[in-house]
Structures are given as C-alpha cells and as structure tokens.
Sequence to fold (235 residues):
Amino acid sequence: MAEVVFCARGVSKVYRVGEIEVHALRDVDLDLYRSEFVVLLGPSGSGKSTLLNILGGLDVPTSGRVSFLGHDLGVDDERALTAFRREHVGFVFQFYNLIPSLTARENVALVTEIAPHPLDPAEALARVGLSDRVDHFPAQLSGGEQQRVAIARAIAKRPDVLLCDEPTGALDFETGVRVLEVLERTNRELGTTTAVITHNAAIAGMADRVIRMRSGRVAEVQRNERRRPPAELIW
Fold:
C-alpha cells in the first residue's frame, strides 16, 4: 500500500450567513496517497473547493480531523499552518495571481526565496516548457503561459502535494490540454501527490482515482485501470 499523505475523517464545514447555516461539507472521509493523481469531480456547490482549502491548510473544519503524514493539522495554530503551506503544499488556482510588474522568473523566485529546498526558478520554468519566456512579464504571456508560470511557481518549492482548483477553467480546449499535460508530467516525474478539482467529467480519465462529490459528501470513489493522457480527453 502507498503511504497515506492526507487522511480526513468525519470532516464537516458549516458556514453561517446571518441566521442561516450552510453545510459545505458533511462527514467526509478521504485518503490521498503518495504520488497519486486524483480528480475531485462535482458540480458547483458540491464542496470541492472547501475540501481542497481544508487539506491545504487555508481553512479549518468545523468538526472532524485532517492529518498530513500522520500529523494532526487541527492542533496547529495559524503560524504552524503557514509553515505547513510553505513547506509542503503547492497551489494552482483558476486565476493565475501573478504579479504584473515581475517577470516569469521573478514571480517564481518569490516562492523559492522562502522554500527550504527549492528548484532554481529557471529550472522550474523549463519543466513547464517556458525556458524561452523567463524574462517576459505576465502581460507578454498568453493565458496558458501564465497558468504554466503559476504551476512552475507551485512546483518550485518541491511540494509534497499539488492542489489545483479548476486550473483549466479560464482556458480554451487546446491550452487546457497543455496545462493538464504539465500537471500530469509533474506528477509522474517528481512523484508529487496531485489533486485536481473540476466540474469537467472528461478530465477524470487522466486520474488514478476519481472522487465524485455531491452536496458536500463523497458520493463515489472510482479507480481507473489506466490513466489516459490529456491529449486523448474529449471535453
């Protein structure tokens, strides 16, 4: 059995809006394993992003327990959670969050300057196919190139886990496939546990496991016999 990286047990999250309680997650049990590629699939409002944020230490559950490599994240204060995110987790979001006044290399260097054992920014950008764009500013890059800079920034600190929230949501079909190819190659070559959340069912074919969420619960877990390369996916 592969090593368990994340273990979630009985995780619930309730937000209060005025006098109304919104149940974003309901009693979720979930394990993520070393080096696997997981797709969390479900419609908007199914709890995917809330679960991702809790796993990544950006949010805390209302009840239940989440552990990372056997360490209970629930005992950590905000300073410890910040260290956890900095040292162990890479994030890729739908929007790129690049600093416009910095080049691609400088955007990646923001992370490598605070990571304990980082990749060189130029090497991280080479891994996502941007060796010829290291000195370009975000405004000089296409949407797909900006997303690849964001991925380079995430992998440059050599994270144990890469958490991706709708990474192709703002991209066209062909550009989205190229971004997915970068994520798949990162998982395969670096062994980074990768979780991608999406509402796009076609992406599920590239995963080791597909976790379908509905109304804040894990509705189904499916293991793929063979991972399909992103270029084979039909959106």
In short: DSSP finds six helices and ten strands in the chain. The first helix runs from residue 48 to 55.
